[in-house]
Amino acid sequence: MIEGPTERGKVTLHAKDLGINPRTTMRWWKHYQETGKIAYKKSQKNPGRSNPLAPEHEQYIQQVIQKDSQLCDDDVIDSLKLQFKDLKISKSQMNHHLKKQHVHFNKEANIRPYDKKL
Fold it and tell me: What pTM was estimated for this model as a whole?
């Protein structure tokens, strides 16, 4: 299939309007001309891993946070693993979950010596 610069320019304009790469648009058009079927991209993003936390885990996390808001994320994770022995969650998964729930913790406990100015 050889197309002229005018046709290619139209494809580029339409592709930009749709936010699609012009080459992708050409590939879809060629597929449509050959098969009569509409090519499409999957609209669903990669969902990733499923959430290992059940509603009772969520409730427990909220209780721990309400009791002591000065905890660091490691304390919350350790407390959760002690309470639910069968829970399999990595620290990175838990950190991601806490960030997603808009709960921000210190990565580590901040322990500083008391500075006394004389």
Answer: 0.46
